[in-house]
Structure to design on (512 residues):
């Protein structure tokens, strides 16, 4: 079996999804889950982009011990230096530098000749090499680059010391036949192809990123760049879960394996979906809500006779549990912490009391507490940030014939309670009008989404709110509660809190 390395870029390319931005706490939490999932390398961010990005990459490099951490850098000395400063604390740091090679990028974006591009690659790969051995070079827009020039660019990078060559289909333009042929061509034309790691990085503009990545593997790639749930720039990137499970289920064909712990996929997907605010479509392969649901009579009949008639992947394989153990308000600490451990949360003794009392509150309003509820409760628990404003109380007066009235009390990050009231055409609008007043800043609600965590009348609501400030920056908040108005208020308040933290931070950075 050939080993395929998984390079996860959820925290970098994934964060380039329109409307998505992660704060430090969220990134660290996702990085820890990615480590548990078994990714070989994680790209934690683009350190030169902002002090916040730098801090995220540095903290993740410090925290993660079982995956390499890398940072992105343009072919610019300051970028590479900054990337190194961020990753150097890690156990096996890497630097990922890139430069576009296609004619359209050379002419219109870079205004560089072929010779200048080659000189820059040579110089910057060598420059990065003085800091770390694992230097990765990506010829951006490789699939629209003249093949002969692509070989020269890659050869230049290898000769300058690059240990990994990543071939990006930056605009999602290629197809599996072409991309496979491109790897086959590179394999014959590039000297030392076998001595470096060849990797693919595909975007999903034409819906072919997973198929393209698999074609790359069939033609010599030994590393795949991907993101959880396929989030990323425009139509997104190759979905990690699809690659990992395709290689596993079809190992007869691909003769390849990864280090991914498959039963961590569902949990990782849920976490990224919750933190990014990007819902997973029900029909999404591997982790979609319907991926293991059999609807038609013929299918159900076959499935009951023998599941493999219609099921090539068992839900358990990817961590979609069909647990028979349902917790409720009579469940004790032992049952709770055993179940949490089974679904991947090992709780430190110091944290157990707080988590148990949260569970009791939940079990008071929800008869049966499922694994999904527990996961939501845990992400809510980890989301409790002392810097965030907290919802203290909410009072809504609903009258179908008139405007709605909401009264809200918020405990601010300094511990002071502030209270206000406002009306609105609907209950949520009234609540949001009060929060606007109390927060004292004009923002636009650019997205609002509500979903239930489980089926049933007593289901908890999960609300996502995306706000954009007048300076164009966007902030995402999530609120989970058995009551939709409470969940809505929490989501909006969390988005505002992130805004306040970000502006406070940038003010102190300016002052410093
Ligand atoms: O899509 C792309 O080309 C990239 C590179 C930076 C690898 O994300
Ligand atoms: Zn990309």
């Amino acid at each position: 079996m050939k080993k395929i390395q998984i390079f996860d870029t959820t925290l970098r390319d994934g964060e380039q999804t329109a409307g998505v931005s992660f704060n430090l706490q969220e990134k660290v939490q996702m990085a820890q889950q990615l480590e548990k999932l078994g990714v070989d390398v994680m790209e934690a961010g683009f350190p030169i982009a902002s002090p916040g990005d730098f801090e995220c990459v540095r903290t993740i490099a410090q925290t993660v011990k079982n995956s390499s951490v890398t940072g992105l850098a343009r072919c610019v000395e300051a970028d590479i230096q900054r990337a190194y400063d961020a990753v150097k604390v890690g156990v096996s740091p890497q630097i990922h530098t890139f430069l576009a090679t296609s004619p359209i990028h050379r002419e219109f974006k870079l205004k560089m000749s072929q010779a200048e591009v080659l000189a820059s690659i040579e110089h910057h790969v060598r420059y990065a090499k003085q800091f770390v051995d694992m230097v990765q070079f990506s010829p951006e827009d490789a699939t629209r680059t003249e093949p002969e020039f692509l070989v020269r660019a890659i050869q230049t990078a290898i000769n300058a010391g690059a240990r990994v060559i990543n071939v990006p289909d930056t605009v999602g333009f290629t197809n599996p036949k072409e991309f496979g042929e491109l790897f086959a061509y590179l394999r014959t034309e590039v000297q030392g192809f076998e001595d470096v790691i060849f990797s693919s990085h595909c975007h999903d503009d034409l819906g072919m990123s997973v198929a393209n990545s698999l074609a790359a593997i069939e033609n010599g790639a030994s590393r795949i760049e991907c993101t959880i749930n396929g989030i990323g720039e425009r139509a997104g990137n190759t979905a990690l879960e699809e690659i990992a499970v395709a290689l596993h289920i079809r190992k007869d064909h691909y003769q390849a394996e990864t280090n991914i712990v498959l039963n961590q996929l569902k949990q990782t997907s849920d976490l990224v979906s919750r933190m990014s605010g990007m819902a997973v479509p029900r029909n999404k392969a591997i982790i979609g809500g319907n991926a293991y649901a059999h609807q038609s009579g013929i299918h159900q009949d076959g499935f009951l006779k023998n599941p493999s008639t219609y099921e090539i992947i068992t839900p358990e394989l990817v961590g979609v549990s069909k647990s028979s153990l349902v917790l409720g308000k009579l469940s004790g600490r032992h049952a709770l912490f055993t179940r949490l451990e089974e679904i991947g949360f090992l709780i430190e003794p110091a944290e157990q009391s707080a988590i148990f009392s949260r569970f009791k509150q939940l079990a008071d309003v929800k008869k049966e507490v499922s694994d999904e509820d527990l996961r939501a409760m845990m992400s809510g628990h980890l989301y409790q940030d002392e810097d965030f404003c907290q919802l203290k109380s909410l009072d809504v007066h609903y009258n179908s014939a008139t405007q709605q009235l909401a009264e809200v009390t918020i405990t601010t990050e300094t511990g002071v309670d502030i209270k206000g009231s406002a009306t609105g055409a609907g209950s949520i609008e009234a609540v949001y009008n009060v929060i606007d007043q109390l927060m004292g800043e004009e923002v636009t609600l650019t997205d609002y989404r509500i979903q239930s965590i489980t089926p049933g009348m007593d289901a908890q609501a999960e609300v996502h709110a995306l706000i954009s400030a007048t300076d164009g920056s966007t902030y995402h908040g999530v609120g989970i509660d058995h009551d939709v108005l409470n969940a809505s208020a929490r989501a909006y308040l969390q988005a505002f809190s992130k805004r306040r933290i970000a502006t406070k931070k940038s003010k102190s950075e300016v002052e410093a």
